[in-house]
Amino acid sequence: MPKIIYTTGITGFIGQHFLKKLINEYDITVNFGRNKKISIYQSSLNPIYKDFNLNELEAYQADSIFHLATYYNSKPKDLSEEDLLEESNFNFPFTLCNDLKKLGLKKIISTSSYMQLLDSEHQNLYSETKNKFISWAKSEFEVTEIFLFDTFGPNDQRNKALDVFIKNAISNQDINIPSSKIDINLTHVEEVVNTLIKCPGLSADQYMIMSDNQTTIEELAKSVIALNKTSTKIKTNLEAKNFFENINSFPNNIYQKTLELDFQDQLKERNNEIREANSF
Fold first, then answer.
1. Long-range contacts of 229-236 (CB under 8 A, 24+ apart)
2. How crowded is the C-beta side of 55, counted as CA atoms within 13 Å?
């Protein structure tokens, strides 16, 4: 019998890196999209595309799914954006897992945001819709929930803080940050996926992947400027909340350092990637 795994979200930043691990670990990876399309990978990054059909999926039965798909919007502007959060973060996985249960799905390994660890009064609609799915899933399946913090690495198109800082420092533009202290934990995407691939062996519970790269937004900006040796200025003219202060308890940390490079060298590597990609 072939070794088969179900997935969602492997077209995203983490998912693209994770797919390479999945192809090495499993004979067949079946990814489900919100558009009712499935992608079937067999020892290759070039998939077979099919429409979702439960009868056809009987040939690709698996008992576990890696659920990475998410739609992030911390401040929806209108009802349509609120509906998209509900549809993407609850309705889609709810419907999918209900269908796959008919084929023998038993376990969900779901990645969650550290925002979902915040006190209820600090939750937003994004984290609420994510938590709503997890709460339902725990009543129907074995659920292994993996909380992630900020990630970075090659081919990241999300324009996160680190990459913005690097681009500004390279082009000698000011870096704007909040006036208050903001904690941040950064984990290289390769170390995230190296840990995720081992998660099917964990018992149903909550875990986190939190590296030793704990810093602040200001210190991160200073490190990036030092790397580039430019005269970039840091301007503290933004407002933001330090969410780490509103997390009362953290789950068991399963992070394992798998890269030889230390944090500064990882930053340098990402800095050079951005410099080359943008022809600075």
1. 230/169, 230/170, 230/172, 231/172, 232/168, 232/169, 232/172, 232/173, 232/174, 232/175, 233/174, 233/175, 234/174, 234/175, 234/177, 235/174, 235/175, 235/176, 235/177, 236/177, 236/178, 236/179
2. 0
- Residue 280 pLDDT class (50, 70, 90 cuts): low
**pTM, whole model, 2 decimals?**
0.95
- Tokens at 77, concatenated: 């502007």
DSSP labels, the chain = ---EEEEE-TTSHHHHHHHHHHHHH-SEEEEE-TTSEEEEESSSSSPEEEE--TTGGGGG--SEEEE------SS--SHHHHHHHHIIIIIHHHHHHHHHHTTT--EEEEEEEGGGGS-GGG--HHHHHHHHHHHHHHTTSEEEEEEE-EEE-TT--S--HHHHHHHHHHTT--EEEESS--EEEEEEHHHHHHHHTTGGGS-SSEEEE--S-EEEHHHHHHHHHHHHT--PPEEEEE----GGGG-----EE------SS-HHHHHHHHHHHHHHHTT-
Contact 24, 1 (CB under 8 A): no
pLDDT tens for 74-101 read 899 999 999 999 999 999 999 999 999 9
